């Protein structure tokens, strides 16, 4: 029987998070029909053992021999799914509330993507939505020292539903029909910015991105040096794909300058 929701989780060395993530799905999604598909990207920890011994009846496990990255891993998971809706969910997340209101939002024919409020491990508000990158936004001085929060400007902390440009891929819900219309995530992105790119593709088909901050989830993700590099490369790919000359050149210069400023700041912090 076809499910309402296919939950796709791409896992790489996420053993310490998986149990809480899957348990939270079972605790909050009992009022809907769903399936959990986990794509393991050649984890080197005991993720596979945990999943096969404790959750074999709850999930469909796809074991990749290689680390496919976020975009390709999710595309693989969706290709094996059977739900009317798709939820991309990070392995280091915990759902706090029923997802029924998010599912109900798709009763409006123009809603193409739904996101919810992201909280950190201490339940503090964390940015997870924003506006599309543009040359003008990139060159504003206010962004120079906070590029990791790229274009997450605006007041998103209250509980009022809002139409925005994009939501983070740690929780991204869409319809299977829309997913196939835009051909899923662009696999040119290994990790980061593919979520913004996906939202851009969906909005070009005249669908809206809806943010529902009255539903919350915890996300334990961190930010390291490797993330900075992949984020920079991701934004370069996005700019080359979606912006036109001369705005493209201005945006690319601004990306490089933003990250240079961040590196200088880190150096001063270490030496001060």
Automatic annotation (TrEMBL):
Q: Where is the Glycosyltransferase 2-like domain?
A: 6-128
> Per its UniProt entry, which superkingdom is the organism in?
Bacteria
A UniProt-annotated Pfam family = Glycos_transf_2
Please name the InterPro entries in this protein's record.
Glyco_trans_2-like, Nucleotide-diphossugar_trans
Name residues in a coiled coil: none
Q: What is this protein called?
A: Glycosyltransferase 2-like domain-containing protein
The organism encoding this protein is Olleya namhaensis
């Amino acid at each position: 029987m076809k499910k309402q929701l296919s939950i796709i989780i791409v896992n790489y060395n996420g053993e310490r998070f998986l149990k809480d993530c899957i348990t939270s799905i079972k605790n909050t999604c009992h009022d809907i029909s769903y399936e959990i598909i986990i794509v393991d990207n050649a984890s080197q920890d005991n993720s596979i053992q945990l999943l096969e011994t404790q959750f074999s009846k709850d999930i469909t496990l796809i074991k990749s021999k290689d680390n496919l990255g976020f975009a390709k891993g999710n595309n693989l998971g969706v290709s094996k799914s059977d739900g009317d809706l798709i939820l991309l969910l990070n392995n280091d997340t915990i759902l706090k509330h029923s997802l029924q209101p998010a599912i109900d939002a798709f009763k409006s024919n123009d809603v193409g993507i739904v996101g919810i409020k992201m909280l950190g491990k201490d339940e503090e508000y964390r940015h997870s939505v924003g506006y599309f990158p543009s040359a003008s936004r990139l060159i504003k001085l206010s962004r120079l020292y906070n590029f990791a929060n790229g274009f997450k400007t605006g007041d998103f902390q209250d509980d009022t539903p809002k139409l925005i440009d994009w939501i983070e891929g740690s929780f991204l819900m869409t319809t299977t029909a829309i997913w196939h219309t835009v051909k899923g995530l662009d696999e040119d992105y290994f990790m980061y910015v593919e979520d913004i790119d996906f939202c851009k593709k969906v909005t070009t088909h005249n669908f809206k991105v809806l943010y529902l901050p009255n539903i919350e989830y915890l996300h334990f993700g961190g930010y390291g040096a490797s993330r900075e590099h992949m984020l920079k490369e991701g934004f370069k790919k996005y700019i080359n794909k979606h912006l036109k000359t001369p705005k493209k050149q201005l945006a690319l210069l601004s990306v490089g300058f933003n990250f240079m400023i961040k590196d200088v700041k880190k150096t001063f912090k270490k030496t001060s």
